[in-house]
Design a protein that fits this description.
With 421 residues, this protein is of the alpha+beta class. The protein is built from 10 helices and 19 strands. It has 2 domains: 265 residues, FAD/NAD(P)-binding domain, CATH 3.50.50; 115 residues. It starts with 7 loop residues before the first strand and ends with a helix.
């Protein structure tokens, strides 16, 4: 029996933002503050993406764009244990509330538990999205669509060109499920914050012990302070050869990482000072996918731009700084191309506006780890503060495009800069 799906158009918006991670929130807030009728669409049941549903430990790296600093300040005001002092450590619950407040103040409409199923197109221009949720299919028209889904799901549906993973072989960085432990003796606890941080103990060096004892492909120790006394966030599960654009691989990563948690807890109790009585109390509801599609933009950010802190006049993101955080694609630890603690470049780099603009598709902007950049450059700009800067820039650019009735590619970067400085 044939069935025809009736798709109702439920709204017309100036700006639609797909994905509500730090990039998506920043884009939607900025567009709303600039007078745009804005809709934010999120597949999870809360806003924040990996920073909240993914139970991320802390913001790594930094950026000059102002909305990131507003997020830190407002989240700090809700921290009961830190007296309002700004910290990069994340309390997922209070960060979620911070995002909601900022979105509501900006007048943004929010639609949760909803996925972008397809995009509406007129020739080579995106004109809206088709969404799918428990209510069924629905269409929403947009003047500008901002793809902040991480994987570029909307841009992919538009036919925008992309490459996947590392240029040489298409391999992508591993996936991780974050979790938290309690019962930690904070006076004695160790906190290796990078793969290159070595921790001597009476039983041997901790990273080496983890590589020897933990079940492959787990095998490293990354432990971070949380905003709550006695609670530590663990970044130690690991799943390799995962394609984050495939549901089957996402499921496999989830199962692999969850099954590693008991072994990791046992290892910490046995070998990590201060963790002798630790136990798991919570885990993320969203698997952490580090790398999938890199879309081809008007411009492309390269490794040299990060390493030499190149300053472009047509920037949309400025004072961006982070290391080359490349996780090992064949096991645990740092890839041979990566550099964390030994990254010595201290100056901030810029990201040209053209990296946010798809080369051949109009009515569409990119924000977050899906922008136009190489595998190595991506290992730096995928950091959440930098992604929030991209979102702010995309929201500003979309607002300018709508007000002037021009395509996003025609927006003058100088006008974006006047809104984000």
């Amino acid at each position: 029996m044939e069935r025809c799906i009736d798709i109702e158009t439920k709204g017309n918006y100036d700006v639609i933002v797909a994905g509500s991670g730090p990039a998506g929130v920043a884009a939607a807030v900025t567009a709303g503050r600039n007078g745009m009728k804005t809709l934010l669409i999120e597949s999870c049941g809360r806003v924040g993406g990996i920073s909240t549903s993914g139970m991320m430990s802390h913001f790594t790296g930094s950026v000059g764009n102002k909305i990131y600093w507003e997020i830190l300040r407002r989240a700090a005001e809700k921290n009961f244990f830190n007296s309002g002092n700004i910290t990069t450590a994340i309390d997922p619950e209070m960060l979620t509330i911070t995002y909601i407040e900022m979105l509501e103040e900006a007048g943004t409409d929010i639609l949760l538990y909803t996925s972008v199923f397809d995009v509406l197109m007129k020739e080579k221009r995106v004109t809206g999205v088709v969404c799918l949720n428990k209510s069924g299919f629905a269409a929403y028209n947009s003047k500008v669509l901002i793809d902040a889904t991480g994987d570029g799901d909307a841009a992919y549906k538009s036919g925008a060109e992309f490459v996947t993973g590392r240029e040489s072989d298409g391999r992508m960085q591993p996936a991780t499920l974050m979790f938290k432990v309690a019962g930690v003796d904070m006076n004695r606890a160790v906190f290796p914050r990078s793969f290159e941080t070595l921790v001597p103990t009476g039983r041997g060096e901790l990273q080496a012990l983890a590589k020897e004892i933990l079940p492959y492909p787990a095998g490293h120790v990354l432990l971070y302070h949380s905003t709550i006394p006695g609670i530590v966030t663990c970044n130690m599960t690991n799943a390799i050869d995962i394609d984050g654009t495939k549901a089957e691989d996402m499921t496999r990563a989830e199962l692999i990482c969850r099954k590693q948690i008991p072994a990791i807890i046992s290892f910490l109790r046995e070998y990590a000072p201060g963790y002798e009585n630790c136990y798991a109390i919570s885990s993320a509801s969203l698997i952490g996918i580090r790398e999938t599609r890199h879309f081809i933009g008007v411009k492309t950010l390269a490794e040299k731009d990060v390493a030499e802190a190149v300053q472009y006049d047509d920037y949309a993101v400025y004072d961006a700084h982070f290391n080359f955080d490349v996780h090992n694609m064949t096991g645990s630890g740092l890839d041979e191309t990566g550099c964390q603690e030994k990254f010595t470049q201290t100056k901030g780099y810029t990201i040209p506006y053209g990296c946010l603009v798809p080369k051949k598709i109009d009515g569409l902007l990119l924000a977050g780890r899906n922008i136009s950049g190489t595998h190595m450059a991506h290992s730096s700009y995928r950091a959440m503060p930098i992604c929030s800067g991209m979102g702010e820039a995309a929201g500003a650019a979309a607002s300018i495009a709508v007000k002037k009735n021009i395509e996003p590619r025609q927006v003058d970067p100088a006008e974006i800069q006047s809104l984000i400085k």
